[in-house]
Amino acid sequence: MESSIGEWMDIVEIEEMNIRGAYVIDGFPSIGLVGSIVANYLVTSLDLRQIAVVDSDHFPTISTIKGGVPHSPVRVYGGELDDGKRIVVFVSEFQPPPHVLKALGIALMDWVEDHKCRMVISPEGISTKQSQRLPGEQPREVLGVASTPEARELLTSKNVTVFEGGIIVGLSAILLNEGVNRIFDVVTLLSEASADFPDARAAAAEATTINDLVLDNRLDLQPLEEEAGKIEGELKDIYDRAGKEQEIRKTSMPIMYG
After folding, report:
1. For residue 257, is it within any domain?
2. What are 5-21's pLDDT values in tens digits?
3. What is d(CA 244, CA 132) in angstroms, rounded to the nearest whole number?
4. Total domain count for the chain?
5. How far is CA 185 from the centre of its chain?
6. Which of 70, 53, 54, 50 is nearest to 62 (CA)?
7. Which domain holds residue 130?
């Protein structure tokens, strides 16, 4: 089944699934690839099935091959947990160009509302000019910002510090603003991440928060935490040998789970 949303975006459903009341995770790349790492880990750990793809003339013409099977660059996974809770995860292999982010955010929110989902959660990496984390250093606390009083109350009840002031840009900003306009629960989680390398440690921090917020701590985060140490250890060796931060910026190490 194909759901055409807007001029630029199509969400093509390839498997029917009841996702009413689902918690939806936005897994588009962010600083440190935080959103991508979290999304891929959730898909694998929760054994979610692909239920749709997102397509647009403005997306790159690529096919990702895994185990001999071609996959679209933007996919949607879903599943129902043993307690009846439903989870949907958007996974992207690339960062959409800025000029399509508005259409993408509206398409995502239209689709989520059409399917009567419960909440959208957007894991996001943020960088600061004041400090730059190196591999192995722990991120500061995860902050949260939400579109509705009810979603802000959820953050407070789970002891997530509310992001009180500043600027959020990109897809997360569009989703938050759409959440306000539609009176729909949207939560953006923010963790300080490096813009210079895939920050699995920041992703693990946000996955821990999602685990507490909506997954009743059912997610086993140990493999992700162990992977964080391995990846960042390798990158720190590069940093130490080079003796300067610029060498890390030259390193590109995509991370995929499953």
Report:
1. no
2. 445 788 999 999 999 99
3. 13
4. 1
5. 16
6. 70
7. 2-249
Q: Does any domain span residue 256?
A: no
Tokens found for residue 48: 């979610």
Long-range contacts of 2-6 (CB under 8 A, 24+ apart): 3/111, 3/114, 5/106, 5/107, 5/110, 5/111, 6/103, 6/106, 6/107, 6/110
Closest CA to 32 of 117, 183, 139: 139
**Could you count the other beta carbons within 10 Å of the beta carbon of residue 224?**
24
Residue 213's nearest CA partner among 164, 148, 153, 165 is 153
Inside any domain, residue 64: yes
CATH number, domain containing residue 119:
3.40.50.10900
Rg (CA), the chain: 18
Three-class secondary structure of residue 156 per DSSP? helix
Give the C-alpha separation, 215 to 132, whole Å.
31
Residues pairing with 187 in the sheet: 121, 146
Q: What is the DSSP string of 11-54?
A: EEE-S----TT-EEEEE---GGGHHHHHHHHHHHHTT-EEEEEE
The reply to whether 258 falls in a domain is no
Distance of CA 177 to the CA centre of its chain: 17
One-letter amino acid identity for 219? L
- How does pLDDT run across 147-194, given as a tens digit for each residue? 999 999 999 999 999 999 889 999 999 999 999 999 999 999 999 888
pTM over 0.90: no
The angle at the Cα of 19, spanning 28 to 218, to the nearest 5 degrees, equals 70
Burial 104-123 (b: 16+ CB within 10 A, else e): bbbbbbbbbeebebbbbbbb
DSSP alpha helix (H) spans, the chain: 34-45, 101-114, 149-157, 171-182, 200-214, 222-242, 246-249
